[in-house]
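Before our next group meeting I need something from you. Please put the record directly below this note.
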Amino acid sequence: MKLFIHNLEFEAILGVLKYERQNPQKIVVDLEFRYNYDKQKKDYIDYTKVAQNIQDTIISGKYKLIEEALIACELSICAIYDIRDLKLKITKPNIMQNCKVGVQL
């Protein structure tokens, strides 16, 4: 089974610039991963909990580097869920006027 969350939007302190440290900015997260679903056991992953975990990790971390936030999210998700083939992307859509920037795992 494949779970995906696209365009998870929230505001967080993330960045090294002075105004990024003082003002939350819009963050967009996309993720996908595979997991084993057992219909008999009703073994599923609650995507609302995954989304909340990602949001809580980034907001509480107040990371300077987007790479640090990405790794923290990866470690948090992998510690909770038995998943494989994780694809994770964090985007800062408003930091530059002419493009969106981010990192992807």
